[in-house]
Amino acid sequence: MKKLFTLALFIALALPAFSAPKTDVYIGITSVGKNHLPAIGMPAFEADAQSADAAELVRNVLRADLLFARYFDINEEGPDFNAKKLSQTMTAWAKAKASYLLAGEVSYAEPYYTIKIYVYDLATRKPVFPKAFKGTKNSLRRLAHIAADQITNALTGKRGIADTKIAFSNNSTKHKEIYMVDYDGENMQKLTSDKSIALLPRWSKDGRIYYTTYKYRNPDIFAIDLKAGKIAPVIIRGGLSLIGGVSPDGKALVFTSSGGSNPSIYIYNLETHTKQRITNKTSVDGSPSYSPDGKYITFVSNRAGNPQIYVMELATGKTRALTKDFNWSDSPQWSPTGEWIVFSGREAPYHPMDIFLVDLTGTQLRRLTTDAGSNEDPTWSPDGRFIAFTTTRNGKRELYLMDMDGSAPHLLADLPGDSFTPHWSF
Questions:
Q1: Nearest to 366 by CA among 375, 380, 354, 374
Q2: What is the pLDDT along the chain (426 residues), one digit of tens a residue?
Q3: DSSP 3-state helix, strand, coil percentages of the chain (rounded to 5)?
Q4: Of 338, 11, 291, whose CA–CA distance to 299 is shortest?
Q5: What is the CA radius of gyration of the chain?
Q6: Which residues pair with 348 in a beta bridge?
Q7: CA separation for the pair 125, 199 (Å, rounded)
Q8: Contact at 8 Å (CB) between 7 and 189?
Q9: At CA 178, angle to CA 210 and CA 208, rounded to 5?
Q10: Most buried residue among 64, 110, 170, 224 by CB atoms closer than 10 A?
Q11: CA distances (Å), 25 to each of 267, 407, 408, 411, in order?
């Protein structure tokens, strides 16, 4: 796969063709050691015949979300929930080594399902999460995701990621279009019909997706307003415009442009519609992204020879290199916690691309993938615990997820075509 930085390097007004391109066994998500994590007892949800399928769906999605979060075990070996014998029920689940009891009830009154979920702390015998959700059949999966995130927060004080999505480019229509999918690989939706080359989707915190497209035969930046169901141009007919990222406050874009003698990095103010060039070297600079506080950017530059990872303080323009020995580096993305930058790179010519982490001092470098195809386009989950990326390990370019330490890599979704440049929502 031609690197995004290569695209800026050659500025060919036609994107280099992405090559397609297999291996990991999916490591199932389980606890680390017996009784290492607090267990949630989870009996079958109560429902009448009309709501039985919905209750099973909601429970299965909720169960999978809570397991993926890695904060809990799920214990299903206990009695059915009995609200009339609540004390006896909680005692039985406590004997089954559960720390919490999660019970659910689903009912239907056309056209809405009502989902009632109760979580009890078995040590205190008190409810810690009584809540009801209401929606149509098509919203059941999302309601389960929302419930999972709220339960995670209620029990741990930490945010969940079940109600997040990943946007990406895919060529299954013979064109590269923008799609999005739930974090668990379900509910895929096609967002664009540009019939051209659309890639590099970048989420803003208000739910918009900015991306680069050749819809007008030039690499322009457009915005997808998911709430309004509209797509509109943002930066058009200005030469090369490769979106890098959206500022944390949603007021600016950082992108690569060919407006000068060399591809350089610019900031575009979405309120004043003005752009400012922030790198001005004889080198090629590209693939920028913002730090979580918006005060810095990370980017790629070949100013020292081969493309390496750099960090710039926006207020002063002070710039320093984080890597120096890579044959190629690309697609750096700042972690939500601000501690790490993930990027794709290769250490020697003709080697496949792999995913690495580097800290902000440049002294800690960690390889996350090895001997498993070409691995590129890393993107962080909003809690900083997981990384999505593309890989050719199964013969074509697919979306994978892994823990931020490189463990438990697994296929996100079995999708047609090849997928590129994923970006995780906030």
A1: 354
A2: 444 454 444 333 233 332 333 333 333 333 334 448 999 999 999 999 999 999 999 999 999 999 999 999 999 999 999 999 999 999 999 999 999 999 999 999 999 999 999 999 999 999 999 999 999 999 999 999 999 999 999 999 999 999 999 999 999 999 999 999 999 999 999 999 999 999 999 999 999 999 999 999 999 999 999 999 999 999 998 789 999 999 999 999 999 998 667 899 999 999 999 999 999 888 999 999 999 999 999 999 999 999 999 999 999 999 999 999 999 999 999 999 999 999 999 999 999 999 999 999 999 999 999 999 999 999 999 999 999 999 999 999 999 999 999 999 999 999 999 999 999 999
A3: 15, 40, 45
A4: 291
A5: 23
A6: none
A7: 51
A8: no
A9: 30
A10: 170
A11: 42, 11, 9, 9
User: Are 345 and 392 members of one domain?
Assistant: yes
Helices (H), 80-139: 86-95
The residue to which tokens 């406590």 are assigned: 94
Question: Residue 338: which CATH number?
Answer: 2.120.10.30
Q: How far apart are the first and last CA of the chain?
A: 27
Task: Specify whether the CB–CB gap between 241 and 8 falls below 8 A.
Answer: no
Would you say the C-alpha torsion 353, 283, 339, 333 has a positive or negative sign? negative
CATH of residue 128's domain is 3.40.50.10070
* Residues 99 and 185 occupy one common structural domain: no
Residue 320, strand partner residues = 311
| Residue 316 burial (10 A CB sphere; 0-12, 13-18, 19+) | exposed
Residue 379 CB neighbours (<10 A) = 25
Number of structural domains in the chain: 2
SS3 296: strand
Measured distance CA(261)–CA(151) in Å, rounded = 53
β-pairing, 189-190 vs 340-346, is unpaired
